[in-house]
Design a protein that fits this description.
Strand order of the largest sheet: 3-5-4
Strand content: 25-35%
Largest sheet: 3 strands, antiparallel
Structural class: alpha+beta
Order of helices and strands: HEEHHEHEE
Radius of gyration: 16 Å
Number of domains: 2
Number of strands: 5
Shape: globular
Length: about 150
């Protein structure tokens, strides 16, 4: 297991589950205190490994052993957003690209792309995702790519 401070610094002291700030000086016994969420990644083209991410103690405890849900921000204007966790797992395993949401205009698509890359930097820090807005059908598609 990694050092809590290393994981916290890498993740910018933000909980990967709720995206709220985590107090680096908080008690690890406090609900809002820092904890490390570790899980084994299924075998992929890069082999199996363990991923560690920063989470509030309460967020980590509530998640338990069930598959997490990483919600899209309610501040974004996205239509038909794809489930983030399933999309990341699929792209991490196979690589390629997927349309993950539609947006009515380019500014909304760029804002969603920026937000998504920020969230994925904490959710899957070992994968170099890129996101872009592509016009199509009178709207903009948010496309997520993995190597």
């Amino acid at each position: 297991m990694s050092d809590l401070n290393e994981v916290g610094e890498r993740d910018g002291w933000r909980c990967w589950l709720c995206d709220a700030a985590v107090d680096p000086d908080g008690s690890v016994n406090s609900d809002l205190g820092p904890s490390i969420d570790s899980f084994a990644v299924a075998k992929s083209k890069k082999g199996g490994s363990t991923v560690e991410r920063l989470a509030h103690r309460s967020c980590n405890t509530q998640k338990g052993k069930i598959a997490p849900v990483v919600p899209w921000s309610s501040d974004l204007f996205v239509i038909d957003p794809a489930p983030i966790v399933a999309t990341v797992e699929r792209l991490s395993r196979k690589g390629g690209r997927e349309v993950v949401a539609r947006c009515p205009d380019e500014n909304d698509a760029r804002a969603a792309a920026e937000w998504l890359l920020d969230r994925l930097s904490r959710y899957a820090p070992d994968v170099a995702f890129t996101a872009e807005a592509q016009p199509g059908g009178g709207q903009f598609m948010l496309v997520l790519r993995a190597p």
